[in-house]
Amino acid sequence: MIPNGRLLKEKLExxxxxxRTKEGLFDFFIGxxxxxxxxxxxxxxxxxxxxSFYSFIPFKFLQLYLAYLTFGVFLVPIGIGVSYITVxxxxxxxxVKRELFGGR
Length: 104
Prior knowledge:
The chain is mainly α. It has one domain. The protein contains 3 helices and no strands.
């Protein structure tokens, strides 16, 4: 748990650590490309489906707020999944490289 007032510091530490490891760099370059593709390709479709779900609410600003909130909550597990898969792929490729070429 992050103590009050430390959220920004924790996020910056995470960001720095991501670029200090090969695994983090792989996730950044490959995972970000996959994540960007998914967002650019499917955002409109997903957002409109979520927004239509809230069409019973009479206030448009409240519909949009709930749609954006739901969209964000929906994307968090997908983002974690993309990172998990890219890190798993990195470890798999490293293992295959070791088996084929030996060494580290």
